[in-house]
Amino acid sequence: MRPARADLQPVLATDQLTEFLSAVADRPAGPAAHHAAVECAARALDADVAILMIDGGVVASIGLPADQVPAYTLAEIAVGRRASLDLGDGRYAVTFATISGTSPGVLVLGRVSSPFTAEEVCLLRGMARVLELSLQSLHVIESERRYAEENGRLLGYLDHGRRVFEELGNVQRAIGRRMPVPQVFDMVAAAVRDLLGVDMVAISLLDRDDLSVGSVVASTGVPADVAAKLQRVPVTAGGVSGLAILGDELIAVEDYTTSPIALSPMTSAHLRSIMATPVHENGQVSGSIAVGTYGRPRDWDKPAREILQAFADHLSLALTDARTQEAMNQAFLDALTGLATRALFQTRLEETLSPTGPGGAVLFVDLDRFKVVNDSLGHAAGDKLLTGVASRIQSCLREGDTAARLGGDEFAVLLPGLNSAAEAMPIADRILTALREPFDLLGAETFISSSIGVAFSAPAEHAGSVLMVHADLAMYQAKKLGKDRYEVFEPAMQEAFQAHIALEADLRRAVLRHEFELRYQPIVHLRTNEITGVEALIRWMHPERGIVPPMDFIPLAEETGMIVPIGEWVLREATTRVAEWNARREGPPLTVSVNLSAVQLDQASLIQVVESALTDAHLPASQLVLELTESLLVDHRPATLRRLEELKALGLRLAIDDFGTGYSSLAYLRRFPVDIIKIDKSFVDDVVDEPTAAALTHGIIQLGRALQLSTVAEGIEHAGQLTSLAGGNCEMGQGYYFAEPLTGAALNDLLFP
């Protein structure tokens, strides 16, 4: 068998395809471009026969006249039903790469001497991807040209449509000639600004090493000081651009000044209207392009949206093309860990699941709390941890198994030749056990764990991409059930995931449509029955589902990062309403309690958000209470304590919610700047009937008094509970005995009868 020559082929193919793309950019309609692609592929992989089919027809061939190409046989090869091609002079081992998109096709190669290796198949797919990008970019330009010609006269801007076509053509030629990506960004920003008549354009990209943050990489019309503040911004706190990235959809806001997801640097620059749409890299969201106007509102009509989307498509082409070329110049092994790359893993997986393959199982391995290690010990320690994990995973495998690093802290294992998922379980167990052992990271002993999803397929039962999705879903199920475990894929997981996706889409729309309302539950002084404050509780008024309980959507909001804009809206709405009530009340002012999630606490902008909300509402900081969960304190990082101390410095108070249900200890209560402990309802329920519960509840109250902390009992429902708690010196309480969570209007009537 001839060697794959993986160290030489990528460079050769890249050089040849660079010439090919330049030819396509200059002569997009010429069949010579197709012939150049086929000739290049045949030369790079030492193939005797090469055939390119587009839209079901042969457009170029090497080693075989086009009229002698067996179309039916090629179709069977393209769906994986055949691994050889019989021609007049013998049998050829074949491989292929599909071309997706608007002009689907297949590139088939054959040779007599030896089968193609997995590495060679990866290389061919990279070449086909470059060809696909060329065809896709031509289609985008042709669509814009037709739009300008067919609709231009009716809409009265034919000349404008032609300008759009010309600018898109300029960008396409720049991509084909390998203009540096930053220059393509600048070209797009200038063209979009002029064509749409906007004041600002900003292109943002996600950080490759940390997809949770993004930065503005090119802009026009954005003040320098504002652009400086838009570096490494968490996507969840990225305003309209962040929402476009999270939802993978175009977001348009006509009045930015009232948007619940407005960014303070942009509002300070007097941004009035904004529209953003995602850009992609190899089909995955990798950033966004946003346009906006200052001072004056803008109606983002259909033509404006289509123009922005067309240029976003071209940015996606530029990014994908650059990454494709970069990947083709790299070896088929991950540079950090030495494991197989995603492309090589996917190729071997498809060979395993082909009709002639042995079938097998996939393990999807995701590290638990890797981000905590990376953030606290630094990227050097994180890299060392990943190499250590790779080594331990490899040590758990059999000969012939393949381990790959998919990216970040995600790994995959291919186990060919198994007959069921049960046969993969011992290997999953070995990996879990191996990763529980401590790692020595730059002198610090560190412990982690992993969550593993297991999925199995018999030969030809599932495509490789489908099996990876199954394993991924099983891995997420393992995380939901507590982490440090494995789960085997079940069809019900996919049904639950689809429902989860539908609810997530509704949640993103709810933020823009202002579908949330607040309820206010009074907090009462137990000895005087005086209302001393309220807790703000969110409700989602879904137009079709009705009222969605917080327990159904808050975890999803935290998982997706939507809790950041939702939480900011709750904070601003609650402080504004309570400030209005206090302005009308006589006597001591009300306090307002707002829940704060761990995701919000991770945001660097949190202090500014809280300070801004208090200032805008004209509410003194002493009248705001932020409630934290016990688990947040237990799983804290050093930055958590610093953030809490910064919040305390504003003059507000901090409370531990649901106290007694988590893992708090005296050490945590002493270490963190807490002012209030809220006794969980589960203790209050039995405070009258169960002596043990009464003793625990009164013990918590006495603990609070000893530490000079205020105590609030949650869930008081009858007079007996009130008597017991008040007799035990609990200061305050809330619950249905006093009032259910009330609408703003109902609480207004209660406060001002």
TrEMBL record:
<dbReference type="Pfam" id="PF01590">
    <property type="entry name" value="GAF"/>
</dbReference>
<dbReference type="InterPro" id="IPR001633">
    <property type="entry name" value="EAL_dom"/>
</dbReference>
<protein>
    <submittedName>
        <fullName>EAL domain-containing protein</fullName>
    </submittedName>
</protein>
<dbReference type="InterPro" id="IPR000160">
    <property type="entry name" value="GGDEF_dom"/>
</dbReference>
<dbReference type="Pfam" id="PF00990">
    <property type="entry name" value="GGDEF"/>
</dbReference>
<dbReference type="InterPro" id="IPR003018">
    <property type="entry name" value="GAF"/>
</dbReference>
<dbReference type="InterPro" id="IPR029787">
    <property type="entry name" value="Nucleotide_cyclase"/>
</dbReference>
<dbReference type="InterPro" id="IPR029016">
    <property type="entry name" value="GAF-like_dom_sf"/>
</dbReference>
<dbReference type="InterPro" id="IPR043128">
    <property type="entry name" value="Rev_trsase/Diguanyl_cyclase"/>
</dbReference>
<dbReference type="InterPro" id="IPR052155">
    <property type="entry name" value="Biofilm_reg_signaling"/>
</dbReference>
<feature type="domain" description="EAL">
    <location>
        <begin position="500"/>
        <end position="753"/>
    </location>
</feature>
<dbReference type="Pfam" id="PF00563">
    <property type="entry name" value="EAL"/>
</dbReference>
<dbReference type="InterPro" id="IPR035919">
    <property type="entry name" value="EAL_sf"/>
</dbReference>
<feature type="domain" description="GGDEF">
    <location>
        <begin position="358"/>
        <end position="491"/>
    </location>
</feature>
